[in-house]
Amino acid sequence: xxxxxxxxxxxxxxxxxxxxxxxxxxxxxxxxxxxxxxxxxxxxxxxxxxxxxxxxxxxxxxxxxxxxxxxxxxxxxxxxxxxxxxxxxxxxxxxxxxxxxxxxxxxxxxxxxxxxxxxxxxxxxxxxxxxxxxxxxxxxxxxxxxxxxxxxxxxxxxxxxxxxxxxxxxxxxxxxxxxxxxxxxxxxxxxxxxxxxxxxxxxxxxxxxxxxxxxxxxxxxxxxxxxxxxx
Length: 231
Prior knowledge:
Layout lengths: L2 H17 L3 H4 L1 H21 L3 E7 L5 E6 L4 H25 L6 H18 L4 H20 L2 H21 L1 H4 L3 E4 L2 E4 L1 H8 L4 H23 L8
Antiparallel strand pairs: 1-2, 3-4
């Protein structure tokens, strides 16, 4: 199947499921993976800034938290906050780039399973997060083993489309000053950027939303330029 056709089919599938009753419940596992990508975006950006990424929490209500420590400057603090907001889009495009050839789809699924297990071993500490991510790793490993290449490629594209489109479902959060995690009210990532730099939180929410859209559009445009069936 053409790469462009897979992209269109996976994107339409996600959008249609969002519209049907209980559609968001159907996509619940993929929503949790988007949250995981968000929190890993914070943690990995903190590590790139030279700080310590201690642990990651993933909750059943779809929320999460990346706990890091250090004493970064104002710009690094803003980048760490933005890393979470942009994380799902970057992860989604990375999946698309890695799955351009169908013959590598099973390998990519298996690699994702290994990365989830490694993440659990190093960073994930709450029970729900451990159970969900290990279960997801097992499903991905099984899919890598039994699914035909074309179906495995479609699964990857479905995951990538969800991650790339998750910035749209996060618009309320991007333009909010506060968020509730585990019953605690905390500053949103946009507010954290505003506190570290200047200008109001809604300005930075708009900047990150535009960046996420641009990353998704450029990545999808690049990937879809592939010609002919991807085998």
